[in-house]
Amino acid sequence: MRSFAFRRLYSAQAGLGLITSSPLVRQPRFSALASPCSFAVPGAHKGRHSYRPLIFDLRRAIGTFSTSSAPSTDPTVTACDKKTKKNKNRLQPAATKMTTTATTLKGQPLDKQVLDSMLRRRLFYTPSFEIYGGVSGLYDYGPPGCALQANIVDLWRKHFILEEDMLEVDCTVLTPHEVLKTSGHVDKFADWMCKDSKSGEIFRADHFVEEILEQRLNGNKEARGHKVDEAAKDDPKKKKKKLKGKGQEAVLLEDAVVQEYEETLAQIDNYNGEQLGELIKKFDLRNPATGIQPEPPVAFNLMFGTQIGPSGGLQGYMRPETAQGQFLNFSKLLEFNMQSMPFASASIGKSYRNEISPRAGLLRVREFLLAEIEHFVDPEGGKKHHRFHEVENIELVLLDRDTQLSGKTTPRTLTIGAAVRDRVVDNETLGYFLARIHLFLEKIGVDQTKIRFRQHMANEMAHYATDCWDAELFTSAGWVECVGCADRSAYDLTVHAKKTGAPLIVRQRLETPKVIEEWTVDIDKKKFGPRFKKDAKVVETALLALSQDKLEALSKDLKANGTVTLDVAGVADGKAEVSSDLVAIEFTKRTENVREFTPNVIEPSFGIGRILYSLLEHNYWSRGADGGDEARGVISFVPAVAPTKVLIVPISSKDEFKPIVRGLSQKLRALGVASRVDDSTASIGKRYSRNDELGTPFGVTIDFQTVSDGSVTLRERDSTVQVRASEDKILEAIQALTKGTKTWKDIQAELPVFESQETEIPVR
């Protein structure tokens, strides 16, 4: 999300707000920043979850707006604009419908309010500081949430760090001002906000415009007798998110006004601060609580500032991404890796973003966990990957740039080998990591029908990036960017080396010495400095930056005339006269035994919080939804990520059961299997049911037969089928199931099915 924090930022030029929102997105990136010229305006990294997923996709294909709102001259952008106008009215209704098709694992309509209530009740997460009123954008994970996150991270570490021999680092959260100034975060990591001068209330400017226009459009629907989504209106959580004050009124709008509002909403992520201010004035948008039009939008830097040390002389920030620490330690990591290339570093840690108005639950927070990889590769040789053949036949769902340019949102399925061969994906290393990302998401249980890889548009790309893809997961909030994977060239290493003078480069001994013939500049520093005084450095830099053709021409002029005139920005008249006694320009020949280069970076960046929440939605379903009046929630985690693997259920609290329960629990711990004993007085069915809500895949029942012959039953969560066998065989089955070496179908074939008395809660 490179940095989930940042890829958003650096990948959006001219203020184009990209994709989904989040804690990564945008948290999101989150990644290192681009040079200042690649960031257009504050908010470039900040997208939102769209309530119109197709419109949301279309936004990305819309060309960047200039400050003057003049049409773009970029043919790519122009093509997008034309397609946008043609398809806008057709796409909006479809997009609205799409948001209502979020489904459970079993295809049932997803009731997000019911799911969120269950997650809080079971303490997957809870608002931080809730008894003090809470703070928006801050959440605490409870025991199951912590275990789920730890299991996801553990699998991530095994899947990437161990499998790929990556070098893991854990860098400090506190980051000095100069580091983030050089990377571009200090100047450009910002959103647009506006303030109500009467109440002092702060709004994120794009959210302010969007919410009021949506209210007006809903009022127009009511005035025309059309039905407005009552569920959304009555949802107290959604009411909280809306602007305070008078609700929507049933006011009839002219068709032209409706079209203008809809076009504005479709492009809301594309506007810069000045344009948002113009929209507020043009549409006379006012704070419903006060009737006051807010002040013009101003940039708000999203980093949390702090003072390092007691003197207050060293300014710092809470890092917005983990990547900068990896870049700054590059030379040490290269040495640790015995100067061998390519190699990758990785880091898992908290990052921070001072969101203006975080409002998407776990999808947009102020403190979030990132897992980021920086794969350093030689830019020569086509960025091949020695393990690409292992993944080349894996099929991915790709929404490529050409498809988006056509105004469509229908992805295509290609093997990653074909995608690289056809240049849909730029190179093997990038393609390799896209496939590995897909395999990881599949391994942890992401619904494969709700994942796609979307390629950034040309006008989204930073000038140094050659290709960039986002792994997006479909949720009740639309398509959410959860992983970003970018070919970032050598930007970060270059800017930090230039600032500090540290040689962040690779030196490789050449097997065959290389003869270099070139024009070189020899400066007599003793005369050059006194001659140009304060301009000496500027003139020297301009001279050394000349091309070989220019140096050859100047050499001839210098020999013929004794002086040459250079164009040098920053000196008087923009000209500098250089004489032959100060400079010699000669054609030289030298032999190189060592090659020096700055490596390029392929960067996968994972927003763990976004992945975690998407996983919860993808694996949730309701057992009673198809029949009775009592729906019971189930979360069908794969065993590898389930917070608790086994529930131990004694059927009685008699003393003879206690040593059996204790012994079984100890054996499971010895096997490294997380288990939990539920010896409450509730019925077995209710005990199973509440652990189904926790996602526990297996349950062991200890009954009176266990006391007599030592056998126990093993229940599988999704089917509720039970098998019975000796304790040792059940333990072997559990170990195989949790390691993934056997499936439940295998266990059913090996062990006899147990037909028990009714223990499940009946569905009436």
Automatic annotation (TrEMBL):
<dbReference type="InterPro" id="IPR033731">
    <property type="entry name" value="GlyRS-like_core"/>
</dbReference>
<comment type="subunit">
    <text>Homodimer.</text>
</comment>
<dbReference type="InterPro" id="IPR006195">
    <property type="entry name" value="aa-tRNA-synth_II"/>
</dbReference>
<dbReference type="InterPro" id="IPR004154">
    <property type="entry name" value="Anticodon-bd"/>
</dbReference>
<dbReference type="GO" id="GO:0070150">
    <property type="term" value="P:mitochondrial glycyl-tRNA aminoacylation"/>
</dbReference>
<feature type="domain" description="Aminoacyl-transfer RNA synthetases class-II family profile">
    <location>
        <begin position="303"/>
        <end position="639"/>
    </location>
</feature>
<dbReference type="GO" id="GO:0016740">
    <property type="term" value="F:transferase activity"/>
</dbReference>
<keyword id="KW-0436">Ligase</keyword>
<dbReference type="InterPro" id="IPR045864">
    <property type="entry name" value="aa-tRNA-synth_II/BPL/LPL"/>
</dbReference>
<keyword id="KW-0648">Protein biosynthesis</keyword>
<keyword id="KW-0067">ATP-binding</keyword>
<dbReference type="InterPro" id="IPR002315">
    <property type="entry name" value="tRNA-synt_gly"/>
</dbReference>
<dbReference type="InterPro" id="IPR036621">
    <property type="entry name" value="Anticodon-bd_dom_sf"/>
</dbReference>
<keyword id="KW-0547">Nucleotide-binding</keyword>
<feature type="region of interest" description="Disordered">
    <location>
        <begin position="219"/>
        <end position="243"/>
    </location>
</feature>
<comment type="similarity">
    <text>Belongs to the class-II aminoacyl-tRNA synthetase family.</text>
</comment>
<protein>
    <recommendedName>
        <fullName>glycine--tRNA ligase</fullName>
        <ecNumber>6.1.1.14</ecNumber>
    </recommendedName>
</protein>
<feature type="compositionally biased region" description="Basic and acidic residues">
    <location>
        <begin position="219"/>
        <end position="237"/>
    </location>
</feature>
<keyword id="KW-0963">Cytoplasm</keyword>
<keyword id="KW-0808">Transferase</keyword>
<keyword id="KW-0030">Aminoacyl-tRNA synthetase</keyword>
<dbReference type="GO" id="GO:0005524">
    <property type="term" value="F:ATP binding"/>
</dbReference>
<dbReference type="Pfam" id="PF03129">
    <property type="entry name" value="HGTP_anticodon"/>
</dbReference>
<dbReference type="InterPro" id="IPR027031">
    <property type="entry name" value="Gly-tRNA_synthase/POLG2"/>
</dbReference>
<dbReference type="GO" id="GO:0004820">
    <property type="term" value="F:glycine-tRNA ligase activity"/>
</dbReference>
<dbReference type="GO" id="GO:0005739">
    <property type="term" value="C:mitochondrion"/>
</dbReference>
